[in-house]
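Quick one: structure tokens for this chain, please?
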Amino acid sequence: MPPSDRSTQLPSRLVGQYALVTGASRGIGRAVAVRLAQEGATIAINFIGPPADAEDTLARVRAASVERGHGDRDHVLVHADIGNEAEIARMFETVLARWPRLDCLVNNAGFQQESPSEELDVDIYRRILDVNLTGAVLCARAALAHFVARGGGGSIINCSSVHQIIPKPGYLAYSLSKGAMANLTRTLALEFAGRGIRVNAVGPGAIETPINAAWTGDQVKRAAVEAHIPLGRVGAPEEMAAVFAFLASDDASYITGQTIYACGGLTLFGEFRDNWAS
């Protein structure tokens, strides 16, 4: 089973940091926002879906700050479509006008939609790339411009996927967006390393989130998924959030350009545990 709630044992590595998390109204994004707040950061919660979901995340973030003794921080909701350049620009203007600075950007917003590649809907294909990839690029551009202008470095953490390296038939646009995330992470990391700016990625595997609702609640489908995971279970959003918090902290001060796969061993190709190939 996933680790139990260890909030009372968490470090406070992010006190004084200001972090923007895109797509933070549910799933991994929500868990990341809460975990960063638990460790002392002030959070901007980006959302585009139902306002009630975003308000729920904000309530959890505020509670996390207070419960961990970090006080009532200036957490904020910021509505923006990460597939829209003008809305991204307004989001950063809003956040930077409210806060003294930004220290960490978490590029989490993304979605997927199944489609046989021979029937690919080009409009949906473009929308997935606009949100998952181009949106991440534009958010990174804005964060980097701020980091460079103010000096003192900064951190960008991209939410990728095991499908950065594992093909996902029937999800071509999603697979392309995550494959490109690898070079986005590595290229920006190399370009800005000399200015104290770190860029990394987290590659989740099969995680119990709304994006996977089609199978997480079905015992047969869930068992079929878990049969491919070497650790034998689906991951929890909080387990992903722990990796993001590590990468945002000074504990990861010598790490840049890397993707950490938090996937229960999916990237180990578990079917090869039995040596059937040779």
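The radius of gyration is 18 Å.
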